[in-house]
Amino acid sequence: MLMAADGEYLAHVYYGKKIPDEALVGIMRFDESPFTPATNNRDRASYLDTLPLEYPCFGIGDYREPVLRIHAADGTSTCDLRYKGYKITEGKPALEGMPATFATEKSPCNTLEVILEDKPAGLEVSLFYTAFEQLDVITRSAVIRNVGEKDVFLTRALSACVEFDTHELDMITLNGSWARERAVERCRLHHAKQLVDSCKGESSHQNNPFVALCEHKADEDSGEVFGFNFVYSGNFMAQAEVTQHKKTRFVMGINSIDFSWKLGRGEHFTAPEVVMVHSDAGLGKMSRTFHDLYRSNLIRGEYKDKRRPILINNWEATYFNFNTEKLIDIAREASKLGIEMLVMDDGWFGHRDSDNSSLGDWFVYEKKLEGGLKHLVDEVNKLGMKFGIWFEPEMVSPDSELYKAHPDWAIRIKGRELTMSREQYVLDYSRKDVRDYVYSMMKKILDSANIEYIKWDMNRQHTEVGSSALPADRQKELWHRYVLGVYDLMERLTTDYPHILLENCSGGGARFDPGMLYYSPQIWCSDDTDAIERLKIQHGTSMCYPCSAMGAHVSDCPNHTVGRNTPFATRGDVALVGTFGYELDVTRIPQQDRDAIPGQIEKFKKFNPLVRTGDHYRIGNMFEDNTWDAWMFVAKDKSEALFEFVQVLGRPNERSRNIKLKGLDPDAYYYEESKPEEKLSGAALMYAGVNVAKMWNVDGLYGDFVSKTLHFVKA
Ligand code: GLA
User: Fold this and answer.
1) pLDDT above 90 covers what percent of the chain?
2) Domain extents for the chain?
């Protein structure tokens, strides 16, 4: 709930559990010193420094974190937005050139637009709030317009500020590194500022644009939780600040490090969307709300509600060392086992034999792909399989023909050495001519053969950020213009090729964000394919992203990243949580693993509808106890549920585990598929639990890395 305090300042009144439409002004402290400026103009600054605000500005006495700061024509930074008016419209307007959630018939929504103005600065701001009625979701974004006579530079333009009337909150974030993305961390808020951010040009491996603030006592199943996720794939910041009066200000938006945006007369800037989820029943409910929203109101395209083809990707099978014959061998064997698509990963273009060359030369490496791409794809199609291909369209290698012809197309600063990373540079996607050229090369490839899937990779972060096409006073726009350029090309690609399944990827999972989900229904979760490491990665990712969007493959052992050996069955059960596929040389793995593939595929096909449409419940938590993990997917109508358990480490002399299931109908009776005669109520299964050893037979609990799935069906 918002109000115009003193008729001027857009104040925040309440955000939390739904309450009837009542005036809550009583909870505002207008009758406490320093009082409102209308009654005490002497202390306007102190008033503004304590008033909970919706879109706080820099420079007028509010010394907490601002969301808007400018560089005016006179060189000063102050801005001062005052309330002007509001509008309510049905539905949800699209965000120009940017990903955002949308309304559907099944989930209608209304949008509130609050208009603010700063007359001396010549600025008008529209704050957009969309409430999704059937989900506890509010989305926010802002449009800032220059309605004055002079240019104004925005040096900070965040998307949302939410004020909490307490500091008794924990902050949950998803942090990590390459191959161990999105580890869950939780800490108590304390005075001053706690920040997660990225200034790498992508949402990053290190911090994800997600934050949950929750009561100290909140857990998976109880307590109040506020989840925030930024629908954006570049630099971001998300910060909680505990203020002098033990209140909390939370802000989220584009990182203001090296950000500046010039607004000429009549120009506007759109701040990307923040999704806010409220849960009165713990983290689990928050996650399920995010999952429902993203599955129905963010992900688009033909595969949105469809099972994805079971693919085999040759990256861990061959790395750069492959040719047509090798790929056809893999496809031949894979097709016999029920695998439905071959994905040719990195190394098929230019003269790329290692990661030091040819990015930008998107034409076929004839020496490797003898007979050409069409021949290979046709052969794969003849085996009854689809064909997919890898691109890294945003990059360029120094030895490429593209770079030699257009060195100025790389992001760089004239006169400075360009820092190398993975032996490559980043193309200047703020430039339409660059995007057009890259796209024309991609189109040639896509039109040359029957390609039905693309893995769009992005393997380095930005340095020396400068564009040869931007004037000096717009250089700091490049970070954001780059992201808009990426979105533009993804939009063109998905519009021109609606049948192609797009999977995003960034050195594993460095761009696992809702912005990317708008263009691709799945994202490669991590380069770490080890089943045990994946338990943590997938658990963390599920905080706000649907499991059905997580790229997850069964790979070979010893695992290439951690050297661990795990049973083939466990690898399958863990990959089943995500999109499912294989990333191994199927012609060389042990015969018994090969023999297990058809059964695994059958299992995946059986449970994938539950994974895609059901409710996800986390039961174990590897961040707290790394000896076991468990989770469930429950059908929306509670008619069936998949329960998965992984014993990570066997332990001597332990009592067997009774695990309480979640999400079932307490009054209904269920049986485990393999034991139809044994019926138990949902209440018994949830409140007393199932004994894993018995369900399994005792031997099953002996050993490390063993998994079990149980399928409960309503009697
Ligand atoms: C990234 C991806 C991998 C693979 C390689 C190819 O690291 O995450 O899956 O595609 O690039 O270079």
Assistant:
1) 95
2) 2-290, 311-613, 628-714
Q: What is the mean pLDDT of residues 356-375?
A: 97
Count CB neighbours of 289 within 10 A. 21
Class of domain 311-613: alpha beta
Output the 3-class SS for 614-625. Answer: CEEEECCCCCCC
Task: Determine the pLDDT at residue 699.
Answer: 56
Whether 311-613 shares its CATH topology with 628-714 is answered: no
Fold of 2-290: Beta-galactosidase; Chain A, domain 5 (2.70.98)
- DSSP summary character for residue 417: P
Secondary structure letter of residue 282 according to DSSP: H
Split at pLDDT 50, 70, 90, the class of 652 is confident
Please report the atom of ligand 1 found closest to the CA of residue 345.
Answer: 10
Q: What is the mean pLDDT of residues 105-126?
A: 96
Query: Torsions phi, psi of 618, nearest 5?
Result: -85, 135
The alpha carbon of 507 and the centre of ligand 1 are apart by a number of angstroms equal to: 6
In this predicted model, what pLDDT tens digit does every residue of 382-430 receive, in sequence order? 999 999 999 999 999 999 999 999 999 999 999 999 999 999 999 999 9
> pLDDT digits over 682-706, tens only?
999 999 999 988 876 655 567 899 9
Q: What is the pLDDT of residue 698?
A: 54
**Dist. CA 424 → ligand 1 center (Å):** 14
Distance 501 CA to ligand 1 centre (A): 17
Query: Is the CB–ligand 1 distance for residue 349 below 6 Å?
Result: no
Token readout for 427 is 């193309």
Ligand 1 centroid to Cα of residue 628, in Å, is 29
Q: Which residue(s) pair with 196 in the sheet?
A: 238
Distance CA(664)–CA(687), nearest Å, equals 11
Which CATH number does 628-714 carry?
2.60.40.1180
Residue 638 to residue 664: CA distance in whole angstroms: 6
**pLDDT score of 653:** 84
pTM for the model: 0.98
Q: Residues 56, 64: contact at Cβ < 8 Å?
A: yes
pLDDT at 121: 97
Would you say the CB of residue 524 lies under 6 angstroms from ligand 1?
Answer: yes
Q: Which atom of ligand 1 is nearest to the CA of 505?
A: 8
Ligand 1 atom closest to Cα of residue 455: 10
Q: Which residues are catalytic?
A: 457, 527
Task: Tell whether ligand 1 has an atom less than 6 A from the beta carbon of residue 593.
Answer: no
Q: What are phi and psi of 606, to 5 degrees?
A: -65, -40
